[in-house]
UniProtKB/TrEMBL annotation:
Keywords: Ribonucleoprotein, Ribosomal protein, RNA-binding, rRNA-binding. The lineage of its organism: Bacteria, Pseudomonadati, Pseudomonadota, Betaproteobacteria, Candidatus Vidania. The gene is rpsS. GO terms for molecular function: rRNA binding; structural constituent of ribosome. Belongs to the universal ribosomal protein uS19 family. One of its GO terms (cellular component) is small ribosomal subunit. This is Small ribosomal subunit protein uS19. It comes from Candidatus Vidania fulgoroideorum. Pfam families: Ribosomal_S19. GO terms for biological process: ribosomal small subunit assembly; translation. It comes from the Bacteria. HAMAP family: Ribosomal_uS19 (MF_00531).
Amino acid sequence: MKFCDFKLLKKINNYYEGKIKFIKTWSRSSTILPKFVGLTIFVHNGKKHIPVYVSENMIGYKIGEFSHTKISPKHKK
């Protein structure tokens, strides 16, 4: 079942109307729709907002799949 948060859709519409400059969301479970293509959406990963540029290949996937929550550990030399 496809799900897209109503607040996110409202922000997308406000962006196209010129009311807001950028789109920030906490809804990682929202599905990417064709209306999102070409936009940069700032997705919260639990600590900070990560910019995600939406392309045509991402349609149908969840937004949270492109904003990673875990960072691989780096060892000291």
